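for the record, two folds in this file. i put them one after another cuz i was lazy. first one right below, seq on top, structure tokens after. the second one comes after a little note so u can tell where it starts
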Amino acid sequence: MQLVLDLFEAPQSQAAPPLPTSRPLQGPHQPAEPLAHVLPKAQFTHPRATRRILLGATDVAYAFRRGKRRTIGMAVGPDGLEVSAPTWVTVGEVESALRQKADWISRKLIEMGERHAQMGAQRIVWCDGVVVPYLGGELQAVLDSSSALKKNSAQFESAQDGLAPHTLRLGLPLHATPEQIRDAVQAWLMRQAKTLFTERLHHFAPLLNVQWQRLSLSSAATRWGSASSSGAIRLNWRLVHHKLDVIDYVVAHELSHLRVMDHSPRFWDTVKTVMPDYAERRRVLKNEPLPPWN
């Protein structure tokens, strides 16, 4: 995931008008102190950092690059702050822009750090009895080397009461390695994903009056799906961790691109024709991170 903010700079020939002077505010009307100044001392270092800046009490080492662009861009991702700027912008102007957005940068760095820690705590430990998310519920993988289950096969058993996890029996020995367990669970989930995604594409395509040609599964780290004008659809197999209504949002989103190949208002109006509550489903997709898969 990446949070992006672009700053549109005024042409260099236009000087910013001076701010009007006024008497300092007193008492409860006094403006709040900038977030970057009141936070405890913190340090954030991007692994490819080339420059460093102090934003209040926050020491930020950021990755900096120049390119053919018209604006100064700032992005806070899992690795930290990345800044890109046009070739004609001076380093001083870049640092001035960073200081102007110090609160935004500090807040996003903290949020990203908390999100990273949360995902680390959810890291899957691949062993007998491991539980993974499945269609909004839970799926427990159980090693079963009995003769009743074919070697390297998988057998799904639905939970009877709706509360306990579903069971996935794996035809693996009890001494199976974590990698063997992970690969067996992933293979089964990918098969379910292909079947389910195909079914949902067939459901929504006629409603949107589009035709898709080919479905492929993706393992992208930051993208849930994509669509090409040729009708090829790519969907991330890990969508099967989410509830069906969230999966349906991604399916409808990508199929809508076969009518509108951008994210203009017309595109979102197209999605809305088959999914009036798409914004809420999209919010769930963004706000419920999945555990790292390794």
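(here's the note) second protein begins now
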Amino acid sequence: MPQPDHHAIAALVRQAALEEILPRFRNVERHLKTDGSWLTEADLAMQARVQRELAARFPGIPFLGEEMGEDEQQRLMQHADSGLWILDPLDGTSNFAAGVPIFAPSLALIRGGRVVLGVVFDVMRDETFSAAQGQGAWLNGERLPPPTTDIPLGKALACVDFKRLPPKLATRLAVDAPYGSQRSIGSVALDWCWVAAGRFHVYLHGKQGLWDYAGGLLILEEAGGHSCTLEGEAVFNNTLEKRSAVCAGDTRLFAAWAAWLRGGQA
């Protein structure tokens, strides 16, 4: 089966988000899920819309959405080698529900044990990030340049999610941060894309789901950036296991950041 065109898929995701997510932003109906996270009407509407449109265009590729049950998700992962869509219909739901304008749907295609296509759409900034394996990363139809920088780690702008880090590491970062300053924007998918675009220099997250990171991971890779887990493994492992993420756009900066996190001197 030929690989879908990532620009066409990006247009599909953008249009669905503008019609299903954006109109609901000012009038949010939210509910707590069993895992303590928020679920809104926009999550469900976006997932149903994208699933329906992908099924019409690519009937041979199964679809896994974040808001499906865990048993169904595990069953669907058995198709990942031959092709599987992975969707987070609204990454940053807590932001969305609170009125913070930072959230994005994230879509990825997994095939042959790899992420081969990724799309992340920043709804409020109308920014569409996309990538396909071997074809580079793109922002609003223009190719992203490699996110290289001559900024040393001590001057870097870091994106760090402290909540999910091991307590000892979180404490060490709080009292002896190796970077210049730190942010956390509340959307994993956009975290990865902003590293790819050079807006963040380094990134750290302790635990994120496959639908959170898959699209952004490919976008960062295709832009020329780097990532691993806190254990030094590849972030993507073709399972639903939650994974940590250590990222940077620049090769030397990534090495310094990873070394500091391992306890060495950067």
